[in-house]
Amino acid sequence: MELRKTNTQLVLLALLTTLSSGCDDNAESTPKNTLEAINYGPLNNSVAIKPTTEEIALKDRLLVNGNTAALVTALDLSSHVPDSGIAPALYSLANNTSEKAITNQWKPSDIPTHIETINSESKGFYTLHSDTRNSDEVMSVTPPEMMMEWIADRNIISLEGGVFDQNSNIYTVPLDPVDDIYLVSINPDTGARRWHLPNKRIGQGGSPLILPSIKDDSNDIIYIGSYEYITAVDTQGNVIWDVETGLKAPENAQEFDVHNFGLNYHANTNSVIALYADGHMVAHDRDTGRAIMAPFSLPGSPATATDFKADYSKLTPLVENGLSKVFANSETFFGGLNIILGGGHEVANYFGIDNNTGRLFVAGTAPDEVDGHTDELSSYGALYAIDLTQIDGEANMSILWRKDFEGGTAATPTISFDGQRIYTADSVDNILAIDANSGELIWDFSTGSGQVIGSIAVSREGNEIYASTGTNIIKVLDMDVCAGDGFECNQAIWLADMESAYQSEVLQQSTPQAHIYTNVLKPAIEGFFRSGGNTEFNFEHKAGNMVLAGITANGITAQIGYGYISPLGKVLPFQISQVLFERETGKIRYIAPGVEESISVMAQAPNGNLYMSNSPLRRILNIGILRAVGVNAANDALKYFGMDILGGIAKYSQQPNQSIHYAKESAETLLNRITNLIDKLSGLSDEVINAEIARLAVPTTQFEMNLIKANNNGEINQAELDLGLMTHSIATVNNMTELKAAEEALQTWLAH
């Protein structure tokens, strides 16, 4: 996590605050405004609950160690029908993958010349989309031959997912949990619960924000929120402050009516900001929790509700049964389906902050009248640019510009590294590039794969853009006046090679999988949709994208599912896999079997491991359909099809006894960046060079960490470890004079 101020900046900030407050030296700096009083919440100065025994800490962890098939079989309900149950092995498709990850062809070719005012770059995800700009990019190296190691806290669901402190500890806020949990922290190595905060609240569930402590930047502070409260807690579970937001949830409000999408950091005012589904925004001082402004409300209206093109009312009792351990209210499930498609609410996603200017960018709905109908609903989406200014401690939000577009959006706005462009999407299939200063549309690009979901991943270098839809991932370059392949406008560089993830050819052969797909799944699914009025629906089996892409130091991370195309053009899966794509070509480098799907983010920690938040809305929808058909047809095989919902955080790490390969991957990543920097040194300022050298720290640390693991595993002996550690020492670059020696040392080590 790199969003931090230097000690000099902190001293200056403290001096400026003291001078502006006019207080005596021993008093707390208090803004001179009408918002002086702090209304504390019930958690203020409280302490988290820690498990009293290891057994309790691990009670909701499922140990997998790569044996996903055994876990799926154990959780499947087909055993209730011993003679005719449809076991997962009868319809699951094998992955296409090699023993080792295919070679990484992508190498950095640019050096970012922009220097941020406050560094937002990310070692691992410290906000919902990795950083304040929503780039979904991290500096860490993904395990090249990953496997699922465990699933922790299996009975909680977080749609936004977990984030990490500097030590890769996991923090997540469960959505509408059955148990009394506001925030939970998980050990990144074992999956044991470290602690949890009680006092669950309406509207909670958004991603935490993690920032370094002002007092000691080697420690972190976690910021979380619900509709009515914002809370700061340290990594040991000590609540620093818990304050009211000034908002009150309406009577009978459902979770998603007042959902908090997570907090973000506004460096210019040193405040943490929350955005809600009803269009409200609040801002609180990072250090004290004091509200720096009254709640702000966007001028939009609720979006027209999503037309699911199916009658899902028949599924309610069947879905409710499967949700009994993870959601307190089954309506939360259907609300989640609606909001991820951008319907029914004023805001359906997170927001971005540009630390260059302090400007906020929010995607929501346009005002009611924009669509030509005054009906308290909006069929137009809008991107808002909002300035947050503060004078004498009192802050104010004002809308600089608004860009309207037909249809809503399910895409969080992403800000370019230099802050000049905003990338978002409409409700059809277009990526939109918008001028950050004027709000003018610069270009649009049709994905040809349906609506973009989540945020658009944008690299800090090479003008690379990765857009995720409900079926695929598309890579394009921002070519200034258009998007394209670097040579021709409106041409993608690649569409990810989804179909090759599974051995789907068995569906064309005389196999159990072909029989189940053709004679069971196809008629059941077609019958359900056609009976609901979608008479033209045809069951088309397909591999497709499950969640937004993540940019890492050695590839593109994603999740793929195999199932069929829904009436809304998205893949509804029967099985899941985790994938590392080659960044240059879109080919699969490695694929690992999964257990449960996610609609969250590719949350990669500073240690390189992926920690996926299980949030199986689409798979459970599938299960509900098949079980409903089973009930209506008195077919026990369908009535007990599949496994119930599985929540928790799934850890993907390097396979056992493959740590030396992970060390080599880290060394190659480090070497490529050093060589690229050496080649371009003559044209760069010292400031730009030092910024790039700082980016080398993460793969350097991973190189050392995996060398030690390889020795502990018996993959390398002590002499080989000593040689590797000597290489690591030389490759630890502090200034430009050490680059050439680092390059030569890494080349020599890799050659051996």
UniProtKB/TrEMBL annotation:
Coiled coil stretches, renumbered: none
Boundaries of every Pyrrolo-quinoline quinone repeat domain copy: 398-478
Domain of life: Bacteria
InterPro entries: PQQ_b-propeller_rpt, PQQ_rpt_dom, Quinoprotein_ADH-like_sf, WD40/YVTN_repeat-like_dom_sf
One Pfam entry name: PQQ_2
Gene3D superfamilies assigned to the protein according to its UniProt record, in alphabetical order: YVTN repeat-like/Quinoprotein amine dehydrogenase (2.130.10.10)
Name this polypeptide is given: PQQ-binding-like beta-propeller repeat protein
